[in-house]
Task: inverse folding
């Protein structure tokens, strides 16, 4: 596609339910990033993929959070047993494996846990 | 590991006044530096970037940033701000190490332009 696509754009879920957030990066982009943007908290790094492998998972806040990437393309961020503090905008970005290029962001998924 | 520090979480400034948004980074290897902007209710988009060459880089809407290697800084400046510059600004560093390329962002600075 022309840009990074994230779905759904909005998700309201009940506390304790599992959710899956999807990211379709720009075709050919090797690197893929997940960030979380909470109100007043700035941009929080979650996980980074290079191809299908995740060399840096240091930002995942708990073991309820996991992510995978298949075929070097689509990535899914899964949050199990959601809590109210998980409410945030989840942003995905991708970039080609060329060191001097920018990261391109999707519009994000706004997750609300009620 | 690299890190990016934006010390100011919020910066209020009057319209037509100058502004500087500070960004410092730490890295043991060469870096590429970026500023991103997020306007209200919009996604992040690239504002400007430093790759090599001239240490002063400019954007199309009047912002500029200067790479200072000795001070490990990449502060963003504009001599006269407009209401439309109200947004959140993120500094970012790209490092290539061990075959991996990673972008690290600062926590952002909210610029509020006051009429």
Result:
């Amino acid at each position: 596609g022309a840009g990074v696509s994230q779905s759904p754009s909005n998700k309201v879920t009940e506390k304790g339910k599992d959710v899956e957030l999807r990211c379709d990066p720009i075709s050919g982009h090797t690197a893929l990033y997940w960030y979380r943007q909470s109100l007043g908290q700035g941009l929080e790094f979650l996980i980074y993929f290079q191809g299908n492998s995740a060399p840096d998972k240091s930002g995942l806040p708990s073991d309820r959070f996991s992510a995978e990437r298949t075929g070097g393309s689509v990535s899914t961020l899964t949050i199990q047993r959601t809590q109210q503090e998980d409410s945030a905008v989840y942003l995905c970005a991708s970039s080609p494996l060329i060191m001097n290029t920018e990261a391109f962001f999707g519009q994000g998924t706004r997750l609300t846990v009620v | 590991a690299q890190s990016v520090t934006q010390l100011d979480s919020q910066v209020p400034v009057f319209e037509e006044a100058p502004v500087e948004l500070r960004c410092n980074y730490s890295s043991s290897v060469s870096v590429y530096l970026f500023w991103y902007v997020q306007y209200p209710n919009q996604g992040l988009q690239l504002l400007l970037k430093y790759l090599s060459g001239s240490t002063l880089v400019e954007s199309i809407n009047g912002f500029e940033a200067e790479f200072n290697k000795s001070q490990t800084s990449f502060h963003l400046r504009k001599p006269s701000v407009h209401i439309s510059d109200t947004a959140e600004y993120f500094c970012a560093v790209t490092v290539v190490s061990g075959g991996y390329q990673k972008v690290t962002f600062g926590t952002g600075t909210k610029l509020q332009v006051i009429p």
Q: What stands out?
A: The interface with chain A takes residues 9, 32, 34, 36, 43-46, 49, 51-52, 90, 92, 94, 96, 100-108 of chain B (CB under 8 Å).
